[in-house]
Amino acid sequence: MEGERRLVIDLEEELAFSNTIDVFEEEIQWMKISIFRLPKFVKMIKPSVFTPKVVAIGPYHHHNNDLQSLEAHKKRALYKFLKRGVKSLDIYVHEMMGIVEELQCSYVDLQEGWKDQYNFIMLMITDGCFMLEVMRNDAYHCRYYHRNDPFFSSHAMMHNIPYMRRDMLILENQLPILVLKKLVSIEMDVDEEEAERMITELVVKFFVPRLYNDKDDLTEFTKSIPGIHALDIYRRSQLFISTKTPQFPIRKPPAPVPNFPVMRSAAKLHEAGIKFKRSRSSAFTTISFDSRHGILTLPEITVDDSTEHVLLNMMALEHIHAEAGSDISSYVAFMGALVESAEDVQLLRRHGIVKNGLASDEDFSRLFYNISQEVIMYQGGNYGSMMWEVEEYCQRWQTKCCVYLQHAYYVLAAGFITFLTLVSTVVSFLQWRNV
């Protein structure tokens, strides 16, 4: 009894200490976090896609020995950035120190060494200027660098920038958008709202040139909810639906139930009478089903060597950030069921829905199968409603087919009996004539 009483006292003291933390303050702290460390079980899905190969952005991978060779090039980028402008480094440091605590709170589990504000701010300025120089690296911007420069020349644009682009879409390899916004605001002498618009455009130009080339869509996108970092802006771009795109009616989502329907593969849907059509938008959320005509509309998707990388990092962001939603994860789970085999991929490609840049159609289906294994699709929402409608249509179509076949059987059987009767009559008549 004495041991039990001691246990109760110790636990009560521990709970009392924990509850001295103001709940409201705790919620405020969680809301400030925008860049997360991935749980080990998430990294285990495919560690290579969550680890930068060329460049570390931010504090989490800064001391990775394999990435140290690029630190000198970051300093060169900072030097070029400052040299082109009229603002001294002192101004940038002073302005950034005004938001240092907010920036530090953006990272979860910040290591002790980065709690030194001056070290942290120099990291933010150096990496922020490097990101700006990389994303601005076009034919015009290259003139500020030597033509043989390994990272900022026209040659680098073709050979090194693609690898850095991939690293800059890793969840643990992000800078708060506030860093880039503050740098541009100081550099260009614009307010932070205009700086944020410029940053969003720059990120879109670098990562999503398709959207950047449509000026109307770009303007509309930059007016939407601002992203928290480059990966988040990229994720939002994959879900963006222009007002020019015909909108589908919003369905009332079904309540989650235990017997949630399993999506059939494309080939099986085709066998069940469903037709496929390409959406006018490439947004992952533009999946709809016309239950009257049995038409499943899907966005076009191009898959290449970088697809798995960006999908997994976007899914990781949705998994760990409460405000990110689950649209990318739901799309991946949906596609994992839809492209069960190479036959499914070929069927969708014939309808202009799939562009496969991998070695084979089997690789395409295997990619979505592998990355969808750890995804649990939300049973409500647009995907859930659509899957219910698809399954109901398949069952109705199969019922109609059974009735039709049954009717056809009786018709054919009756016709065959009539035919046999006619043959029997003719044979009997011929036999009578020969008698």
Automatic annotation (TrEMBL):
<dbReference type="Pfam" id="PF03140">
    <property type="entry name" value="DUF247"/>
</dbReference>
<keyword id="KW-0472">Membrane</keyword>
<keyword id="KW-0812">Transmembrane</keyword>
<dbReference type="InterPro" id="IPR004158">
    <property type="entry name" value="DUF247_pln"/>
</dbReference>
<keyword id="KW-1133">Transmembrane helix</keyword>
<feature type="transmembrane region" description="Helical">
    <location>
        <begin position="408"/>
        <end position="430"/>
    </location>
</feature>
<protein>
    <submittedName>
        <fullName>Uncharacterized protein</fullName>
    </submittedName>
</protein>
